[in-house]
Amino acid sequence: MAATMQDVARRAGVSVKTVSNVVNGYPHIRPATRDRVLTAIAELDYQINLTARNLRTGRTGIIGLAVPELSLPYFAELADSVIEAAESEGLTVIIEQHGGRREREVEILTGSRRHLTDGLIYSPLALGPGDERLLDVPYPLVLLGERIFHGPVDHVTMRNTDAARAATEYLLGLGRRRIAAVGVHPGEEVGSAALRLDGYRAALDAAGVRPDPALEGEAGLWHRRTGAEAMAEVLDRGARPDAVFAFNDALALGAMHELQVRGLRVPEDVAVVGFDAIDEGRYSNPTLTTVDPGREEIARTAVRLLHGRTRGAAGEPQRVAPPFGILVGGSTEPGRERSASEP
Amino acid sequence: MAATMQDVARRAGVSVKTVSNVVNGYPHIRPATRDRVLTAIAELDYQINLTARNLRTGRTGIIGLAVPELSLPYFAELADSVIEAAESEGLTVIIEQHGGRREREVEILTGSRRHLTDGLIYSPLALGPGDERLLDVPYPLVLLGERIFHGPVDHVTMRNTDAARAATEYLLGLGRRRIAAVGVHPGEEVGSAALRLDGYRAALDAAGVRPDPALEGEAGLWHRRTGAEAMAEVLDRGARPDAVFAFNDALALGAMHELQVRGLRVPEDVAVVGFDAIDEGRYSNPTLTTVDPGREEIARTAVRLLHGRTRGAAGEPQRVAPPFGILVGGSTEPGRERSASEP
DNA sequence: TTGTATGCGTTATCAA
DNA sequence: TTGATAACGCATACAA
């Protein structure tokens, strides 16, 4: 079958150790020897057996990426970026979906699949305060998102509160006063939902606008569908928003859909702002105003931190939060386009 | 560090063989022995080392999934479904992105990463006729898509021509006569683009409508952006379509965006049909009429076929093409909604 | 029903 | 600069 190092060694008239040295780019090899080995490798069409190397070295070159689901466009784009970043560092990615189910989230941390990976980039939804000890795992872990803050691990996060506040202030600046929040998780004290709600309320407060609970729409998982449902709930309740701040773009697009189905004009009657800057929002009708949380940088940073740890980098857990920006589209300012040009 | 079978065996007072038997569910074990072993496993917090097992058995329980990129919503949803299906068969998935670059597509087939996987679900874009021999690989391979037809491997495909024809006939049935095609790959003889173009032309032909080259918009990669660009090209050329059949939903949404930016009404002035039935099209404004190609079934079938082959299933290469359907939305019939209810 | 011994293909130790 | 040889942790003939 497939050739082994033994075969190559025999053919090149050297020892397996020498073949190994060549394959791994060990510098002190006589050029003639190296050539003989490379020739033999080419002739036999040899490829290294990664499984054997993994067993011997205890490392696999694979990292895990755990997300809620790839059908959520933000996580699909994040996975794209993570795979890209990993590739450029010579790493392979295994994606696991937990769907926000606590049991799956725990299983991912402790399951035997972790023996297959050198480390994990972990974006939980169900885990929260009190679960810090679950993060005390015997392998490198980089946390994404805002569910757990004082875990013993590196953490790449978004500037949720600041960004949410900025988004809300932007709407206030447009003269909107009855701003709905879509994606609220009642009773939650940490997590993106809580932090974004904080930012939203802080902005209202600073502007002297009284928060109205009737304008807060709940949504567990942040899908288009749940965004539409939350929007419907707010409207059915009789609240009359003149703007919506949705906690992510999928929610925003679902909410916008619901508004339009009901004959409300976006942005004239209701302005809509999302969060995530997914590509979809550049082509929606109208295009979506959104917070750009720095997804690319989040992915690159997470991979870099994790890779460093897998190679033994010591030191205090890092906490990184890339800068954010607001991308303005037609969902808040009539006729404003965002398609081709910007980031 | 982590406990090994040796440790468990010592603690339980049995041999490693017995531990192995217990771990692997071998039936003929005395209950008392099994209990001792399970207790020892629990006490030591033992987990099997998958790398060692992989080396020993020559199988990894991992399958590869190669797609253009996860940022394309169809492939994100496909990956979701594949991971789900794999999970339910006890398999893990490694995703590789090739971006439609031929060099990457070849590398994926032959690279050393294949030693890490038991088989590959492979959806190429650049490979085509003449590349059949590249598919003659020493591991199980399931082909997705329409680039290569007579390869020596299992093949799960869409009913491209029939579905494209049905979509076009549907537009003709609405009275549209100047139907643009968006996503054309000029000169291509196989591939989704060619097959869908065939179906489109066949429908026109059968209806006695003369095909107009000015109505055919090129798009290499099928993104929202390229859809918008192709649509712009067609319009700038002076063609005056009353409908668009886009070869996938991303193109369709991009094209619809371009139409709307130019002040054309969808569907009144121009009706739009896509292909793929991604979730996004249920919430666009208007909602998107599209071909449902049976993504879930494609994913399940591909995983099932591959898993079978990895376990030694012999026999002729299979060719499977799930049935398709047309989902009608507001992009072709005013006021028609498709959100919550249907598949 | 359970134990012993061997090898999967690689890297690491040490010596030459 | 290179070679001989011992692990890495598990599964499996074969033996008991």
UniProtKB/TrEMBL annotation, chains A, B:
Region (Disordered): 313-343
GO MF term list: DNA-binding transcription factor activity; transcription cis-regulatory region binding
Alphabetical keyword list: DNA-binding, Transcription, Transcription regulation
InterPro entries: HTH_LacI, LacI/GalR-like_sensor, Lambda_DNA-bd_dom_sf, Peripla_BP_I
Lineage summary: Bacteria, Bacillati, Actinomycetota, Actinomycetes, Micrococcales
Name listed for the protein in its UniProt record: LacI family transcriptional regulator
UniProt biased composition (Basic and acidic residues): 334-343
Domain called HTH lacI-type: residue spans: 3-57
Keyword Transcription: yes
Coiled coil spans: none
Record carries keyword Transcription: yes
